[in-house]
Design goal:
Helix content is 34%, strand content 14%. It contains 10 helices and 9 strands. It has a 7-stranded mixed beta sheet. Strands 2-3 form a two-stranded antiparallel sheet.
Length: 264
């Protein structure tokens, strides 16, 4: 029997914005708001928060238990193994990875990636290779068999830390698909919806303050419409548009080019 789980990796020890997932917007932890948005997905299956065994992450486990959210704890630095062990515990056949720094994730985009994966019998599907959606709409879906192979064979620390590079860096080993934005444009380097700096927190807070009370399931199009009418919100974190983790590994990543990231 097939089973889908969506794993949300979360931790408190962010070097740039410590405790970011438990910062509050509209009196609610950001992690709770993101999980609520993800729950609108029709395809995501069981949502599990995967945190680390570091005592600093006890607060995440406590939050999950108090709110009847499934939680798993694993290796702090080996995120690949954390995802694999979590998938085994919950007996998953299909696994999705969504970082906890994507509190503006749109469930409609999630479902597009899931549906493409389920309809095409592939090992790995994402909307990141190449990316076209605004940064912070990261969805990756893969089979348990592919995850098992990656966990067994991936050796580089970068592959272990970032979970999925072994898939898309080795297209000869896996069948891979990608979903591009139907607008047929690329906002991945110009629009930043992810949470890594205090400026991102201010940006995301304003989006929620403007849209959440009208519709908690506000869409990507709703956000872009708001930015059109209030461009000052876009400017809150635009200095970091295009900044992502690729910048630190360009010499190691064979499928990522310099134009796909920006150095601070």
């Amino acid at each position: 029997m097939s089973k889908v789980i969506t794993i949300v990796q979360a931790r408190m020890s962010s070097s740039r914005l410590p405790g970011k997932v438990m910062k509050t917007i509209l009196d609610q932890p950001i992690l709770k708001l993101q999980l609520e948005r993800m729950s609108f997905s029709k395809c995501c299956g069981q949502i599990v928060v995967a945190t680390s065994l570091n005592p600093s992450d006890d607060i995440i486990e406590k939050f999950c238990l108090e709110n009847q959210i499934d939680v798993f704890r694993g290796d702090e630095n080996d995120l690949l193994d954390r995802h694999y062990q979590c998938a085994l515990k919950y007996e998953a056949t299909t696994v999705a990875k969504i970082p906890s720094d994507c509190p503006l994730i749109d469930a409609r985009i999630m479902d597009k990636v899931f549906e493409f994966f389920l309809e095409n019998n592939l090992d790995y599907v994402s909307n990141l290779h190449p990316a076209t959606y605004p940064d912070g709409n990261d969805v990756e879906v893969f089979t348990i068999e592919a995850l098992e192979k990656a966990n067994r064979d991936a050796k580089k620390s970068m592959e272990r830390e970032h979970t999925t590079p072994y898939f898309w860096e080795n297209p000869h080993l896996f069948t891979i698909g990608n979903i591009s934005w139907e607008r047929n444009i690329d906002y991945s380097m110009s629009h930043r919806f992810t949470l890594d700096y205090i400026e991102d927190f201010h940006f995301i807070s304003r989006i929620y303050e403007e849209l959440y009370k009208v519709n908690s399931n506000f869409s990507l199009e709703d956000i872009l419409g708001l930015l059109d009418t209030k461009p000052e919100i876009y400017g809150l974190n635009s200095i970091y548009a295009g900044v992502n983790w690729y910048r630190n590994y360009l010499e190691e990543l064979s499928t990522i080019a310099a134009h796909q990231t920006k150095k601070i």
